[in-house]
Amino acid sequence: MFPFTFRELNVLKEEKFSLVELVHHFFTETKEAGICSFEDFQVVFIFDGLDECRLPLDFHKTTILTDPRKSTSVDVLLINLIRGKLFPSAHLWITTRPAAANQIPPDCVGMVTEVRGFTDPQKEEYFRKRFRDEEQASRIISHIKTSRSLHIMCHIPVFCWITATVLEDVLETREGGQLPKTLTEMYIHFLVVQAKVKKVKYDGGAETDPHWSPESMKMMESLGKLAFDQLQKGNLIFYESDLTECGIDIRAASVYSGVFTQIFKEERGLYQDKYDGGAETDPHWSPESRKMMESLGKLAFDQLQKGNLIFYESDLTECGIDIRAASVYSGVFTQIFKEERGLYQDKVFCFIHLSVQEFLAALHVHLTFINSGLNLLEEQQTTGFWWPFQFMLWFKPFPEKINLYQSAVNKALQSPNGHLDLFLRFLLGLSLQTNQTLLRGLLTQTGSSSQTNQETVQYIKEKLSENLSAEKSINLFHCLNELNDRSLVEEIQQSLRSGSLSTDKLSPALWSALVFILLSSEEDLDVFDLQKYSASEEALLRLLPVVKASNKALLSSCNLSEEGCKDLLSVVSSQSCSLRELDLSTNSLNDSAVKLLSAAVESPQVKLNILRLNVCELLAENCEAVSSMLSSQSSTLTELDLSIRNVQDSGVKLLSAGLQRLNCELNTLRSDQLTFCFLK
Hints:
With about 675 residues, the chain is of the alpha/beta class. It contains 29 helices and 18 strands. One of its GO terms (cellular component) is cytoplasm.
């Protein structure tokens, strides 16, 4: 077994290795043992952190390589290994965040496993263990349940930690005050907590002293730029060069203590976290802290645009962060010293979670806009007239300000993998006066126009009327929530409560609102019954995201066409589909639809256990497709209900043959005609 991390492989981007040389390079004991061929061994390669990969993995334009002794670039080596060209008998296990999984072509994937986050009971268990005071724990749990966006995010363990850190501080320092309800409010409070920790712990200040010094603010600006640049690039980790580009001096790491986490990577992949946690009271922003936050925001934005999740020293330097002072960023930033196996001493950096990078990136875009009038989301900037009217512009709904938010909406919708979704929610949340008030001291100018916010809300509603994917529509509703607009959701909820919902009159935006409500419901999506809304194919297609999230879908009598069947099966075949029971009874599926359905059930991605059908006429060739489905090794069907008329003898024989094959796992088959045949 040979475990690799993409963080280690990234630094070999410009070098060339053969597969044998690469193994020898990382596992010197194989070279010392004289092992130069691995064909006689059962070999497993583990590649950890595909989402942190900075290698150009182009599966469509890569030279085929079959010789494990021939040297080439690391990316070509990996592609041929994944495609099975280089070492066909080897087994590969690649770990990644879901957003990066589509980098690997589906035909190269044999099996997908998912490490899930906290379940609802586990969320509650976490907070009860975190807060020993039962009354305090109950209040926090109750508050989180009232905010669906917070409750949903709490399936991520690190978000539970962030939430606990914030709510503990708010309850201790502002007793009786309002608790944060939106993601933006939560992350603003989190930022404030880290600034207070830095001021008290590292600067020797008092709890009531201003925490945002000019130096800290400058550093935060640099980090914000790094976050944004690397977010756009899709980078989660950063190297020294990334920091250098953002103007971050990596030699001044101690300056960032209290706002960054410094983690030393030791042998066997163990980490020593130097962050002490904890929270002080009363948020203030000293000039030093403001500088630091500006640096952090720049870092977040730069790397977000690049799609980078890890950063190197150059990334920090570009954002003005002195890596000698990286420990100052404890709680927000992670510094990793590559000491494992003594291969590299390169410093690798990343935020404690992608959502922190996305928040700081949004903060950087916001700060840049109000300070200089520069819209970082537009390629061409026009700022010549800005400074004389900067103050007026911030308090009036000039087109430039409206364009900032509209361009952010457009850019997020254009993202193929949704990597700017949270960034958009944070940016819109920062436009509210109430949230800007929480950042007094960091924001030298505050102000908000209700007209600007209303125009942004209206623009989002117009987008919801377009033909958007379910994921993009749902995120836009989260954006409306950050803007405190729940009009569409409340309209649907009122209709549902009164029993007067008429799907015939629903606009596309209201259809999206219905999907959002159903997916955000506190009730588990165990059974979805289409009849409750409308027994039509249009309603089914609109509500496919709900089908995808349900365990059981009752879709009888919806006049499902062949095209509708294709759309349904596309959802059922997706890796994240939860469906286990599908009822398509009293739908007159044609021959092509039956073949499509049979082929889908044979797919390893489909996990259906129960399938109910009503086929008016099952031709012999379709019986063959169903027979193949029954005996497929990857089929998980245990119960099949076939209400069939006019089955020819040849068709019955084919179905019977499928049932008798060893691979058939079916326990129950319902059909009067076939039962009679078996009894014979």
